[in-house]
TrEMBL record:
Its EC number is 6.3.4.19. GO terms for molecular function: tRNA(Ile)-lysidine synthase activity. Ligates lysine onto the cytidine present at position 34 of the AUA codon-specific tRNA(Ile) that contains the anticodon CAU, in an ATP-dependent manner. Cytidine is converted to lysidine, thus changing the amino acid specificity of the tRNA from methionine to isoleucine. It comes from Pseudogemmobacter lacusdianii. Pfam families: ATP_bind_3. It is an enzyme of class 6 (ligase). The keyword tRNA processing applies. It is found in: Cytoplasm. Belongs to the tRNA(Ile)-lysidine synthase family. This is tRNA(Ile)-lysidine synthase. ATP binds at residues 22-27. Gene3D superfamilies: HUPs (3.40.50.620). The keyword Nucleotide-binding applies. Signal peptide: none annotated.
């Protein structure tokens, strides 16, 4: 490996690593660069089954790995949705399959072969949507999903540099035909990017701009975290808001905080539409009731709506059958008002039952049990 590429490869801390290996030039180069750097690697390929050739390509990649002495596994996605965004569903399925496989192998780090070109394409696609800073700061270098760390070590390397490196080492790769299919926005953006180079808008230069914007987003995230400590108080899986303090926030910090609260409570992958979020923000500032994305604002308390309440948000310990406290559980608690929580918040907390008899309601201080909402809002903010 040349010194220049070695210096710009952000090597993971873990010694043993899972490599998401599609067989394309980027992931093949990443696999071998990490091996040269002394890492122990295992490769995993997801066959989405969306093209007739995909199974043969996955088998070919498996043959390469046998020749290289690299452990390799093919994971197949078979639960294709009949409606909706197929490409988005495929991306989610790939992530979940690799996550579960990584844990099963006793590994904690997965690396992906995205490059500076992917960063540049992502920035340009964001511009087509008139995206704000979140949509223009590119792909995340790393993030956490449960016990698995995902990382993109090659965001400072270009696709052409990697192809040259592969050719100099006599290593094979396969090109995904979707990369040149004009049906897909990324393929059209890739062709546009080639025409921007004479203006100095190279993949490396655009990726550098995305990195600057990412640092600006980090500053905004820090401001949101600080604002959250003054504006909202997490209790019993809900958020108690100070409308006056919220109204005093700068507009962008208020928007980001409101969006974060909704995403934390709802568990949604995508934020609400801008117009809907703006109406919700106005309701918070005015101290009015509102609902948005399965969440309910009432008397300055923000909770999930009862029909969206989910015990999986909670770590509950104790003996008994777990279920929400609900109105029936509240009727069996004589002194529930002493816990300081309103009825509509307490009813959505976990409880332990023996048949129809309530035996523990941790958030109300009743019975031998404990309950913790995980992750907490602060922990969620730090990880997103």
């Amino acid at each position: 490996m040349s010194v220049s590429l070695q210096a710009r490869l952000d090597r993971p801390e873990a010694q043993s690593i899972a490599v998401a290996l599609s067989g394309g030039g980027d992931s093949v180069a990443l696999l071998h660069m990490l091996r040269e750097a002394g890492h122990q690697v295992q490769a995993v390929t997801v066959d989405h089954g969306l093209r007739a050739e995909s199974a043969d390509e996955a088998a070919m990649v498996g043959g390469w790995c046998r020749d290289w002495g690299v452990p390799h596994q093919v994971l197949r996605w078979e639960d294709h949705p009949k409606t909706g965004n197929l490409m988005d569903a495929a991306r989610r399925a790939r992530r979940d399959l690799i996550h579960d496989w990584t844990l099963a192998q006793g590994l904690s780090t997965v690396v992906l072969g995205h490059t500076a070109d992917d960063q540049a394409e992502t920035l340009l696609m964001g511009l087509t949507r008139a995206a704000g800073i979140d949509g223009l700061c590119g792909l995340r270098p790393s993030w956490q999903q449960g016990a698995v760390t995902w990382a993109r070590p090659m965001l400072r390397l270009t696709r052409d540099e990697l192809r040259d490196w592969l050719s100099s080492h006599g290593l094979p790769w396969v090109e995904d035909p979707s990369n040149s299919n004009d049906r897909f926005l990324r393929a059209r953006t890739r062709k546009l990017l080639a025409g921007l180079a004479p203006l100095g808008l190279t993949p490396a230069r655009l990726a550098e701009s995305a990195a600057h914007l990412a640092r600006a987003r980090q500053a905004l995230d820090a401001a949101v975290l600080e604002a959250a400590t003054r504006v909202c108080d997490e209790r019993a899986g809900a958020l108690h808001l100070d409308p006056g303090a919220f109204a005093a926030l700068p507009e962008e910090i208020a928007r980001r905080l409101a969006q974060a609260m909704i995403l934390w409570l709802s568990g949604a992958d995508y934020p609400p539409r801008a117009a809907d979020l703006a109406r919700f923000i106005a309701a918070v500032q005015d101290g009015r009731a509102a609902t948005l994305a399965g969440c309910r604002l009432k008397n300055s308390w923000l909770t999930v709506e009862p029909r969206h309440a989910d015990l999986r948000r909670w770590r509950l310990t104790g003996q008994g059958e777990a279920a929400l406290l609900g109105a029936e559980g509240l009727r069996q608690l004589e002194n529930w008002r002493g816990c300081g929580l309103p009825r509509h918040v307490l009813e959505l907390t976990p409880a332990l039952w023996q048949g129809d008899r309530l035996i523990a309601a941790p958030c109300a201080g009743f019975g031998l049990a404990s309950a913790e909402c995980a992750p907490s809002f602060k922990a969620w903010l730090l990880s997103h």
